[in-house]
Amino acid sequence: MKVVSVINLKGGVAKTMTSVNLAHVLASFHGKRVLIIDNDKQGNTSKFFGVHGYKKKSIANLLIDEEPDVCQVIQSTSYDNLDIIPANMKLLKANLQVILDPSRQQQTILQKLLPQIESNYDYCVIDNAPDINISIINALVISDHVIIPVKIDQFAFDGLVELSEQIGNVKKAFNPKTEIVGCLITQFQKNDVNITGTEWLEKKSNLPVFKTKIRKTEKVDESTFVNQPINIYSKRCGAAKDYKAFVEEYLIMVN
Ligand SMILES: Nc1ncnc2c1ncn2[C@@H]1O[C@H](COP(=O)(O)OP(=O)(O)O)[C@@H](O)[C@H]1O
Ligand SMILES: [Mg+2]
Question: Which one of 18, 25, 39, 160 is at 20 to 30 Å from 129 when CA atoms are compared?
């Protein structure tokens, strides 16, 4: 199983859209067995797949329960080959609880659980919160790949240096195999700001950048109201084609 974290310290850059559509394209068009982990207390990915709630277990249980059974936290989605570990506001308290518990190593809780599910999936996609907290460090510790969605605007590059540093720290201390596969430009429009920003990212940021850009497409906003991956909601729109092309580029880069 390969684990891929979708992460950026900023909100609204399409982390959730990228996670959901990456997972869906891998499962539906490439026949991969995919687990998506919602690692954001906002629970947007969980809402998208209709599994947000407080009755069933969530990612918080994996962080704080003693010897959790990961399979009990996994739910199926209405898509073939695509399962989910949901999140809700309990993740906030779970993070605090982990930090305040000196009896175990905080950063490697998920890593210790990975063997339970490793053989059941080909890919695990983690949708992270716009933050660096202990649940995100736990995600990075198990990640083979990191994808950084970037929306080009005035503040687009804020936090990229800090994020790279944190990923570098995790790499050194816990997980030498993790690598930033690339920045993925999302909500791309052909205007001066986007073109200049893309050039800066490609030439000056020292970060790899995917050739594929995800075009800004109204259909994506609409797709969130009906909770359908973009290739189900409107397979001919620009963003649907771009997400398929992005996944192909990703698979070529990492295989
Ligand atoms: N390619 C796109 N075209 C148009 N709107 C988009 C696109 N990608 C994302 N959005 C919109 O941007 C907003 C933020 O996306 P989201 O994935 O929730 O970001 P994040 O998880 O980084 O906070 C959502 O309203 C979403 O519909
Ligand atoms: Mg999100």
Answer: 25
